[in-house]
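User: Second chain of the day. Same drill as before.
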Amino acid sequence: MNLPRHTRQIMLREIGGAGQAKLRDASVRIVGAGGLGGPVALYLAAAGIGRIILMDPDVVEDSNLQRQVQFIESDIGASKVQALAKRLRDMDGSLEIDTVNHSFAGVGSEDIIIDGTDNFKTRFAVNAASVAAGKPLISGAVAGWTAQVGIFTGRDDISCYRCFVPDAPPEAATCEAEGIVGAVAGIAGSIMALEAIKLITGAGQPLFGRLWLYDGLAATSRTISIPCDPACECCGVHAHPE
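Assistant: Same format as last time:
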C-alpha cells in the first residue's frame, strides 16, 4: 500500500486504512476499454485497486481520441487493451493487469464486473455471466448528451440488467448513430469507478437495483428504481426453477 499516494483517500472516514487495504486486495473485470472503460480503469488504478482485467477486441482509431482520453495519437492502430494497460502501468507499477483481446470471454475470480460496452448482445452475455457467478455488475451507457449507470445482481431482490432491458431495442441510441460529447463519457465512467470504490470499501449506498440518469444539456440528474422482473429470462423464477 502506497500510503503517501493515497493519504487523501485514507483520510475519509468511510474508507480509512481498512478500506484502502480492501481496494489493494480487490480485482475488477472491465469489459470494454473505450469511452467508459478508460476512465473507469484510470480512476480505479489511481485509487489503488490491486488487479484489473481488461477485455476488448478493438484497436485504437483516430475517431476514438475525441472521448477516449486514455489514448494518444501514437496509440492509433494499437490494441486498446494493450495501450490502456501501458497507461495504467505508468500510473502504478504495482498494479496487476491482465489483458484479453476479446469482447467477452466469461468471468473468473474477480470481485466486480464492469460493463462499458456499446452493444446489447455483449451486455446480455456479461449480465448472464455475472448473475450465474453471483458477482455485482456495474453497467453504464452513454449517447449524445446523456448517460446512465446502474448496479445489477439478479439476486436478493435486486434486479439484473435483463429486468431493465428484456430485449434489445430495435433502434437503440448509440454513440455511432447519435454522436456524443466526450465529457459525458468521462462523467459516466467516473461514476462507474466511484460505485466500484463504494462496493469494495462498503462506503455509502451503491446503486443496487437503481439507475442514475444524467442529462448534460440540462445539467440535471435523477435516480430511478429498477424492480426485479419475476418473468426475467435471466434471473426470474422461471429462469432458475426449484
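Helices lie at 3-10, 16-25, 37-47, 80-91, 120-133, 161-164, 175-178, 182-201.

User: Great, on to the next one.
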